[in-house]
Amino acid sequence: MQTVQQSTYAEYMKLHLHIMMTQMGTKSGIKKFEQKGNDAIIKELRQLHDKKAMVPKGKEDLTLEDRQKALWYLICIKEKRDGTVTARGCADGTTAAIHRQRGGELYNGVSGGNDDVMLH
Q1: Is there a domain that residue 37 lies in?
Q2: What is the phi-psi region of residue 22: left when phi exceeds 0, alpha when psi lies from -120 to 50, beta otherwise?
Q3: Structural domain of 73
Q4: Which side of the chain, N or C, has fewer Cβ within a 10 Å radius?
Q5: What is the pLDDT along the chain (120 residues), one digit of tens a residue?
Q6: Cβ 63 vs Cβ 80: under 8 Å
Q7: Number of domains comprising the chain
Q8: What DSSP state is assigned to residue 56?
């Protein structure tokens, strides 16, 4: 009886791992999906631009300190069950813990402002 429950649990976990592990990074997503992946990334970035969530700046327009404080914007690509390819983005806040200060003390929060994000 217990072996049946264990094998059912293992199959259940395999299904969930497959669903969770189907997204990929930008480079491998463009390599796999080609134009569909590229279009998904452009759509994601256009949303940010249209909603004025970020203002694009060239690397040469930023000081060294601004570049060091900028957060990376990570984009993952995924193919949905219906075959459409989508992209999702989020800011990587690990550098925010180093550079944020509140009241003279180091602030370990990971939330950054809209002007602290750098696309890579």
Answers
A1: yes
A2: alpha
A3: 23-119
A4: N
A5: 444 455 566 666 666 565 556 778 888 888 999 999 999 999 999 998 899 887 778 889 989 888 887 888 889 999 988 989 999 988 877 766 665 554 445 444 444 455 555 555
A6: no
A7: 1
A8: -
